[in-house]
Structures are given as C-alpha cells and as structure tokens.
Design goal:
- With 772 residues, the chain is of the alpha/beta class.
- It contains 29 helices and 17 strands.
- Helix 2 (50-63) packs across helix 3 (65-74).
Length: 772
Amino acid sequence: ENNISSRGESKGRLKQETLKELESLTKTEEVSLFFKFYEEVKKERNLFDYDDVLESLVKIIEISKEALSMIRERYLYVLIDEHQDSSLVQNEFLKKVWGPLEKPDIFVVGDDRQLIYGFSGASIDHFKAFKKTFPEAKLITLVDNYRSTQIILDASHMLLKSVMSEEKLISQSKEHHPIRLIEAGDSEGEIFAAAEDIREKIKTGLPPNEVAILVPKNRQVRHAIQVLHQVGLPIASLESLNFFDQEEAQSLVRVLKIFTGDNVALAASFFDKTSEVDPILAHQFFAKRNMKEFSLEILMKETPSLFVDKNSVNLWLQKLIAWYKDVKERDLKTLISIISGELLKDNRKNLVTSKEITDTILDLLEPELERNSELTLSQFISYLEKIEAAAVEVPLVSPLKAGIQVLTMHSSKGREFEYVWIAHTDEHSLSGGKKLGFSLPRSIREVVEEGDIDAVKRKLFVALTRAKKFCTLSYSLEEDGERQRELAKIIDELPSEIFEKQKASTQGGPASLGKEKTSKEGSIFGELVKLVKDIYSDRYISASLLNNFFECPWKWYFMNLLKMPQDKSASLEFGNKVHEAIDQILKLNKIILPSDKEVSVVIERWIKNSFHEIAPNRESEKSISTRDEEFPHLNIYGKIDLIERLDEDSIRVTDFKTGGVRKKSDIEKMNEEGRMSNHLRQLAMYSYLLSNNSKTNVIESRLEFLEAKNEKERMYSRVITLEEIGLLVKDILDYDQLVKTGKWVNRPCNYNSYGKNTGCEYCKMAEIYSGK
C-alpha cells in the first residue's frame, strides 16, 4: 500500500519512485543475465579472466595436497606489499596456504588510508581480517614520515584516521608551509590561478618536475595541461592524455573513415580546421548540392572541375582523391603514416604533436596486424570505434621530458612532489561519479554508500600526502558558466585553522581564450548570416527542425539547412524498422511480424494493446504541408504516423515512439523561454497542419510509447488547445525573425549531455567560423 499514490492525477497508481525502483530491478535482472551469459561464453571459448586465475588457484590448493605442499616448500618467506589493495580471493589464498601453519614467515606492508582500488575488489574488511587469520602476527606501526611536513600530515590525519592504529604520523622535516585553500569564480580561473602560482614557484628555483597538479577525473587532465601549455609552462610526458580526446586524433580517424565509405565523416571533414577549407566556401559547396547523393565516389566523378578552380574546397577534395589512391596501393601502416604526415601540421600552439598522434595510432595498429596480417582499413576503423565506445583509455605515446606533471588523484599514488596543487575539490568533481543503474539490497547499498564517502576521503588522503613541502587545494563556484559548485563536504567539515583561505585573483585569463565567444558581428559571420538568409526559406519547416533550432542553432544549421548526412544510430535504425512494420500492418490490414526478433517483440505488444482498437477509416505515414498567411514564404510540413477519422468532423492523431517513456510532467513542461517541449510541439504541429489543410477537428492527440514496460505509461493523450497552436506559431515567427535578422548565431546552445560529460558536436563544428 505504501507504493500506491493516494492523491493527485496518479491516485491509485504506483508512485513514481516505485516505478523507478521497478525499472532498476529490471536492470538488475539484466545485469545478472549478462553475467551468466559472460560466464557461459568464457567456458565455450576456453578463456580465463584475471578473477578466474585467482579463484582457480584457490580451488587447486583446496583439492590438491600436492600443489599445496609444493607452494609451501618453494616459498618459505612471503612479503605482501600494498596489502590494503588485496581482494577477498587473494586473502583466501593466504589463509588456505599459510593459515594452518604454526608460525608462517609472512611480512605484510600496508596503509588502510591508501585503499583507493575498491573497484578491483579491495576492501578494508579484507585488510583488517589479516589479524584474525594470523592472530600471532605482530603489528608494527610506522610513525616516522620522511616525505611531508607536519602540517600536511596533521591535515591528512584530521581528514582520515587509520582503523589500525590511533598513532599520528610524525614528520622528520622541520619546514613549515601553510596549506592554502583557493576559491575561484570558475574552473578556467581556478586552473589559471594554479598556473600563475606555479610559475612564481619555478622562478624561485623550484624544478618543474617537482610540481604536480592533481585532478579528480580524467577529462580534467587535458584542460589543465592545455592551460599550462597556453601560458608557456613546461609539461612532462603527455601519456596521461587519452588518444581519443585529442582533436588531432579525431581528425585523423575521421579522414580514415572517409575511405571506408563513411559519408558522415566526409561531410564533417569540410568543417575540420585540419582540412584548411574556407568555412564560407564549405557552406556554399553544401548549400547547392543534393545531399541525398553525396559520397566520395560521386565527387570523384567531378574531378575535371576540381583542378580548374584552386579554391580550398577543391584542394581538399584533391587531397582526399590522392589518399584514396594510396588506400588501394599502400599497406595500412604506410597509408596511416602518409595521411597523418600530410594532414596534421605542427605549430607551437598545438598541445599534441603529429608524431605523438601517429605513433599512438600505429601502436594500436601493430598488435591487430599481428593477429590478422590481412587486416583491412574497415576492420581497423571498426576496432577503433569499439574501444572508443567502450571508453578505453588509450595513453598517448609521448617522449619523457622534464616538466610539470598533471595526473588524476588515483594515478598519483606512489609518487611524490615538492609542490602539489589539488584542483577541482568541489563536491560534484570530488564525490560525483557514475551512479548504478540497477538496485542492490538495502543492507548492501548502505555499506556501499558509506564506503563511497570513505573512498573519497582516501582518494584525497593520497593526494595530500603526495606533497613534500607545499600543498594547495582549489575549487570553483561555477563550471561552464552555468553549473553551480560548492566546496566538497569532507573538506568543508575540516577545522578552518588547517587552511589559509584565499580567493583567486584572476577570473579566466588566457586559459579562457578557448571559450571566449568570438564577436558575431565580424565579417565571416556577416557573410554567413547573409548566405543563410538567402536559402533558409527553401527548407520545409517541421517540428523536428524547430526542435533542433531551439536546442542549438548550429544543430539546425548543419542538420536542417545544409542537410549534412547523419550517423545512423542503432536506436534510430530500430525505430525506423518498428515504424515500417506498423505502417505495413496498417496499410495491408494484415498482421505480418518482422523477421527481426527485437522489432517483433515490440510489434506483438502493439498488436495486443492497440491494433484492434484503431478505427478502420485511417491513414498512416501521412505527409502534409501547408502555407500560412502570417509567413507565406515558409512551407510548413509534417509526416503523421497515424490519423484516425472517428466521424465526419473528428480526427485522432497518434505518434509512435520507441525508446524511453516520457512522463506527463516532462511532456507538458515549458522551458525558460516559455516554449513547449519537443514532444508537445510535435503534437501541436500535427493539429496545426490538419486544421489548416482540411479544417477538421483534432479531438485527441496521442504519443504511444511502444516499449513501455508499464501498461499505464504506454499512452499519453490530450487535446491540443488554441493556446498551444499559438505557441507553435510564435515558434515559427521567432525562427523566421531570428534567421532573417541573423540573430540566430547569438542564441545559446541548450544541448543536454544527460550526464555523459560530452559537449555539443555542432557547436564544436561551428568553431571553424570563429577561427578557434
């Protein structure tokens, strides 16, 4: 009963939090099924993973006295370093082999406060259990510290005490330098403040290789390195950077994709600064083309004209054609070296060199060629896409050199520096992480949540104790000019006398140059605005066009105005197959299940829930266009999934949706500009088109979520009001006015990454117009 809502529109139904819990339980079931499948596949392929090796070792000594005796006789003395990082099965091995012996010669070294590898199975409980397994073991607490100052050690002790001993570490250093806590206005200013402070320290004689900037997350490493590079400070090896995060790497992979028939990559390459194509010429090139017929093969047929006019578009196409010939004549290693050498240009502004990019991609290629000497470019690109999609960190192959180290807190373990600056110690950066999408039993969940807090403390403990003399912590109040930040609770709760608190004296600075909004009044934007104004009225106005425009004007520019080809995602392909199957059934009035099993499951559910209730007088996938006297130069268009004529004057429209269910509150929510959600704008567009064309009355507009697990969430239904039609008309008028006046280039981007820490790809492409 506690799970049933007792008020409001949801009265009598399951509460939203209960529905979310049910969804997470479904995911838990999926995870368990995946794990079962994973284990089965390993057996089929006769494969072991690392956990299997350890578990099998324990099983062997359990069933084989011979193996047990051999290990005991061979290894008379055992040293275990970093014991806090040992997993349960590693401790089981110790227990089973040496636990029964009266006086085993085992020496264990560890620090419970440095347990930061919980994700690999380490636990403080395993560390503490050693004393239970070997009760005669003598505990020797080391208190003399030869690295850090007493101030750093005291702060670390207040942050996190050992569970093994009450004793405090005592520094053998007599130096005394306060720990500073710097508050910056934004993340740009925070790192710039670090760079300026480090510069001053280096001027006083501190070697650059004795300085480290530590950050919580991998994605923050490149930003910090970029700032140091911009201000001219020496940086140590760039191996901490991920290959796939580098613009140069993305440019190279994009060009390689072109030769596998990837037309999306081909189109995007014209707006990549490495192609050196004039953006205005790129715009003109796309604006006059039929983008439904766009490929390198088609462009190659136009070869004679490419050699007449030596503009930047034709020069780029000539390069692509020359490389295309190399694809057929060269081996993969030579091909990649040639393209990389000719595509990537080095200059002092570049953080990463072309050699580092080339060496890294060849490093990825080499083992694949060893596995398959007949490896094709398509197969190699597919391999790169898989490891990038799996978020595998591929470190840059970079020469070792003296300079400032920029590391994550995790990767700093075992290192030490004269000066450590710990950046981004706000609550979100330090404590935020990926949330489990599945459920755990409450008793386990509480332990995990408590452990998460300790894990953050241990991570910060490790970072603090990397410093020998000087240590600074910093955080910012804003990120990307939007997200509000606050100091992490575990730091805020420490006694205030620990820190010398200061405010960063600079906001942004040279570090913010990369994000400065270039003036939209410049000649290049003025020319673009005029060109866009000349052709925008030739494009059909649809709900999806308006959705794109108000999400990000550059998304509209590239997708709807230039009609650049788009990647066909698995979800989009799936949705298209579902729509085609429903359309076929509705047109033939005959149940035909598709051969695709996943699609068939959705269609069967739709047939059971909806098909027999649909009016016989109906049309599916109906295209409608209209013109309005308020904006006669615009052609308004829409394709409606299902129109049912209920009587002479009454119509019902339905839009079929695959993917996640949307809540009523989200569908009907207005944004800060007073605009409708994408879904509601779509339904309003259907009513607008039908009323303009036939003056019929749309008495019901529906969204049918075909993959809804809960029957009550399957259908969203409402009557579109005149007010909502008015909002749609306002959207069209605003769109028309913004494009005509050129003010669309000044509209902010409202891209939502949904927690994936990704930026807007269209804004990134548009940087070519600002000369970034």
